[in-house]
Design goal:
The protein folds into two domains: 3-66; 88-282, Rossmann fold. The chain is α/β, with parallel strands linked by helices. Helices cover 40% and strands 19% of the residues. The chain has helices at residues 3-16, 22-33, 38-41, 51-65, 70-74, 97-109, 127-135, 148-160, 204-207, 212-215, 223-231, 251-260; strands at residues 76-79, 82-85, 117-121, 140-145, 167-171, 184-189, 236-245, 264-270, 276-282. It binds S-adenosylmethionine. Residues 90-91, 93, 97, 122-125, 127-128, 145-147, 150, 173-174, 190-192, 213-214 line the site of S-adenosylmethionine. S-adenosylmethionine (SAM) binds at residues 90-91, 93, 97, 122-125, 127-128, 145-147, 150, 173-174, 190-192, 213-214.
Length: 283
């Protein structure tokens, strides 16, 4: 079977399994397997696959047909240009979260006293902490999560990106993970925000493969925003900022939660599709 035939056959199979963008997915899986950029496949359409390559591709396509995410099959994804290993213990880093990380490192860059210190609350794979650490060479980052398995992955990702010495990993439930008296210039978080009952309606790639702990924001999806609004103040320095990602359609409710806890809501930022997705607040 040639590269082109393999792509066509795989795309047809994935299409029947209702996988979105089946041809692209087939190409990405084959390119990863052959260790070449996707575009290079186009120069190799006539190349014959070996038996071992065909068997490996068949296995990958079977898994993708069962709606396992591409990132889990390939074992990694890119976040702000940094390579992140992914597994079932942490949310796959999403492109929209890159904007939160960028706002975070832009703010830390304006701080005069150095080193600045940042908390990534609910760190998961560690993607936000790692991107900010990489972009702010003077910053120290604390990355907290309730899941030991997610923290093990985050530590692996920090080491892989040669940033382990500037990121401290803390396990615990909410702010109980932190030492009393700890204070940060920036608290950044992408917490779980899906209403519990909506989880069953999500695509299988999310519903069956992202950990429920990373998705479930309680009955209305807003539990973590109430928690942060009520408990984060003592952990923020007087000139510090809080930046939180939230779900599409949650902006008004979240703004109200923070204002009723006497936070100053500085901005609600939109993503590239003009949907409000990030809250910026201060004391
Ligand atoms: C939506 S994921 C975000 C992961 C990562 N920050 C990202 O943007 O890809 C939320 C994370 O919150 C963690 N989490 C859930 N409940 C928690 C709690 N009570 N205290 C601390 N972390 C919690 C989960 O383990 C998960 O890693």
């Amino acid at each position: 079977m040639t590269v082109l035939e393999a792509i066509q056959k795989s795309a047809e199979f994935l299409g029947k399994k209702n996988v979105e963008a089946p041809r692209l997915q087939a190409e990405l899986l084959l390119a990863h397997l052959l260790k070449m950029p996707r575009m290079k496949l186009y120069l190799n359409f006539d190349r014959a696959l070996t038996v071992a390559e065909t068997d490996a591709l068949r296995e990958c396509i079977k898994r993708r047909g069962q709606r396992e995410p591409l990132q889990h099959i390939n074992g990694s994804t890119s976040f702000c240009g940094f390579e992140m290993t992914v597994n079932r213990h942490a949310l796959i880093p999403r492109p929209e979260t890159e904007q939160l990380a960028e706002l975070g490192w832009q703010f830390l860059a304006t701080i005069n006293h150095q080193p600045s210190i940042c908390l990534d609350f609910c760190t998961g794979s560690g993607c936000i902490a790692i991107a900010i650490a990489a972009k702010c060479p003077n910053a120290k980052i604390v990355a907290a999560d309730i899941s030991r398995e997610a923290l093990a992955l985050a530590q692996e990702n920090a080491a892989q990106n040669k940033l382990a010495e500037r990121i401290e990993f803390l396990q615990g439930d909410g702010f109980a993970a932190l030492a009393a008296g700890a204070q940060f210039d920036l608290i950044v978080s992408n917490p779980p925000y899906i209403p519990s009952a909506e989880i069953e309606t999500l695509e299988p790639e999310v519903r069956d493969f992202d950990p429920r702990l990373a998705l479930d924001g309680g009955a209305d999806g807003l539990n973590f925003y109430r928690l942060v609004a009520a408990q984060a103040k003592p952990f923020l320095k007087p000139d510090g900022k809080l930046m939180l990602e939230f779900g599409d359609g949650q902006a008004d409710a979240i703004k109200k939660i923070f204002e009723s806890e006497k936070w100053i809501v500085e901005a609600v930022r939109e993503d590239y599709s003009q949907r409000a997705r990030i809250l910026v607040a201060r004391l």
